[in-house]
Specification:
The chain is mostly helical and 216 residues long. It has 10 helices and 3 strands; from the N terminus they run αβααββααααααα. Helix 4 packs across helix 6 and helix 9 runs antiparallel to helix 10. The longest helix is centred in the middle third of the chain and has 25 residues.
Length: 216
């Protein structure tokens, strides 16, 4: 696995190490079963073990990797039951957030529309960009209702699908951004219309569709 060394920047070395590993999952350089050795990663990234340990511990908390050996980890594989549970949890969290944001109206809805327009203008030319665009959209409703506890739960669930290859497969579409728009705009419009039942139903249907992508 070829990992570039980290350059000094404003972000902490722990955050930088996490970002590099994050990209490795989405680029399929790190797949389920891959072993991650702390000393080896520190040498490859050109940093000390401490920030690497921070990054690995964060990924462990997020359920992406699990301990394996003294100073090592292994990238987790996900069973069908586990995947089903994660999507059920998403339905509960995102379904509630969409309904609540629709009921709040006003500034909450405005924030969702503005956030959506920002996301749709961003490139989706890599698996990482596709993942971030999709996660960003679904996070909009959580952010709009200002519930930090739901935000934490949302991030935990979404980061656990980092190792899925669905993000790379989405790039097979000739019109990735167009597909993204067609799949999500209806949800935004339902929220803007004030129809909480319709917005809730649309987001649940969309989540169900996302679950089926893991079976292709």
């Amino acid at each position: 696995m070829a990992i570039q060394k980290i350059s000094i920047s404003r972000e902490t070395l722990g955050e930088a190490a996490y970002r590099h590993l994050f990209q490795g999952f989405l680029n399929k350089e790190l797949v389920p079963g891959t072993r991650l050795l702390m000393d080896e990663l520190a040498e490859q990234l050109g940093i000390s073990r401490t920030p690497v340990r921070e990054a690995l511990q964060r990924l462990e908390r997020e359920g992406v990797i699990e301990p394996h050996g003294g100073r090592g980890y292994v990238v987790c594989d996900v069973s069908t039951d586990e995947l089903n549970q994660r999507y059920e949890a998403r339905e509960a969290i995102e379904g509630f957030a969409v309904r609540r944001a629709t009921e709040l109206g006003g500034d909450a809805v405005k924030r969702i529309r503005e956030g959506y327009e920002r996301i749709i203008a961003q490139p989706q030319t890599t698996a990482e960009e596709v993942f971030l665009a999709n996660r960003g959209f679904h996070r909009l409703t959580i952010e709009a209702i200002d519930n930090t506890h739901l935000e934490e739960s949302f991030d935990l669930l979404w980061n656990r699908v980092l190792t899925s290859d669905i993000w790379a497969r989405m790039l097979d579409s000739d019109d990735v951004v167009g597909e993204f728009d067609r799949e999500h705009r209806g949800i935004v419009e339902a929220i803007e219309s004030g129809d909480a039942d319709r917005a809730h139903a649309l987001v649940l249907d969309h989540i169900h569709s996302g679950r089926t992508l893991h079976e292709i």
